[in-house]
Amino acid sequence: MLSKVVYFSRKHENLMNGKTVELSEGNTQVIAKKIGDEVHCDIVELSPLEKYPKRYPEMVEVAEKERQNQDRPSFHKVPEEVENERILFLGFPNWCGGMPMIVANFLETYEMTDKIIYPFCTHEGSAFGNSLFELKKLCPQTRIMTGLAVHGSKVHKADKAVKNWLIQYEKMEEQYHGKK
User: Fold this and answer.
1) CA neighbours within 13 Å on the CB side: how many for 5?
2) Which domains, ranges and CATH numbers included, belong to the chain?
3) I want to staple 7 with a disulfide (CB 3.0 to 4.6 A). Which of 52, 57, 91, 165 is the partner?
4) d(C-alpha 2, C-alpha 84), whole Å
5) pLDDT tens-digit profile of 5-60?
């Protein structure tokens, strides 16, 4: 089956275990790479046209404002084949209790009807928050599979969690290819 990992992530200052730390690579990006390696598919980053602030407090202000205003931040164009993929592994951090508005813009921009989405998120204690409800509302004609929520401070130790989560994908692959 055709699949891609599409994710939004943010490096720089982040909150981890109650402390602000500097990240050279965003937590969601770490998980996206693990998934891409496991299922042998390309990963595609949703990259905002206007960069988010590097400092954590300012970034939170921007995220809260986007959510309050229901803004849809623009992103750099993703490869055309993303729209042709049957399966998307969709990753994002939990921001302000839900998915970042740039992800909502992606879902509204590209045709999601009849796709299968495996959502994954990184968080600091609130798991998906309202993200799965938002995802189902934005993509009513899409099959949403069980998601994977990974605590941000544990992304580098999440190999087993990712592999266990991907069992559902492997089973679907076997059914699709007629294997038992």
Assistant:
1) 25
2) 3-176 (3.40.50.360)
3) 91
4) 8
5) 999 999 999 988 888 999 999 999 999 999 999 999 999 999 999 999 999 999 99
